[in-house]
Specification:
Number of strands: 7
CATH topology: Aminopeptidase
Largest sheet: 7 strands, mixed
Radius of gyration: 15 Å
């Protein structure tokens, strides 16, 4: 059996069928840990999302990926420039939540090879209370932040 990290790959969001993104982001279980997710998605939401994430790639040379496990779409995530910081986000389909740390380790390995990324920030909503795995990868709590009128805990991992 191959290691789980070898089964994880990153691709382009625009390669994912809009219906797949809509189903993922409209799953009612997603709202629990996504305070900025205010309604089920439709085609216009999916199109705006992909366009915004593709604009990050154009502007910053890095952004969010479609994420696969054994070539099956499991979610999206990656890095987005927020001021001087590179913020990491990961949004998995609920049945794939168990892959989160393996995907995060692989993404952080990518970040460690990119000279632009001295550290990575994570914004977590207050509903995320199980933080041991985050601490095991070296994340340190920095402060509470208000982002789009929602409160998040900000953590940082050094990559260099």
């Amino acid at each position: 059996m191959k290691p789980i990290d070898d089964a994880i790959s990153f691709g382009q969001l625009d390669d994912i069928a809009p219906a797949t993104l809509i189903a993922h982001m409209s799953d009612p279980r997603m709202v629990q840990h996504m305070p900025l997710l205010s309604h089920p998605w439709d085609r216009a939401d999916a199109d705006r999302f992909v366009a915004a994430k593709q604009a990050c790639w154009q502007r910053d040379g890095l952004g969010h990926w479609a994420i696969f496990h054994d070539r099956e779409y499991v979610g999206w995530g990656g890095f987005q420039k927020e001021g001087d910081d590179w913020d990491y986000g990961l949004v998995l389909r609920p049945e794939c939540f168990g892959l989160g740390m393996a995907i995060t380790r692989k993404a952080l390995d990518f970040a460690r090879c990119d000279p632009r990324i001295a550290s990575v920030t994570f914004l977590l909503p207050p509903t995320r209370t199980k933080l041991a795995a985050l601490r095991r990868i070296g994340a340190v709590f920095e402060r509470t932040v208000n982002y789009e009128n929602e409160i998040f805990s900000r953590f940082r991992v050094l990559t260099s």
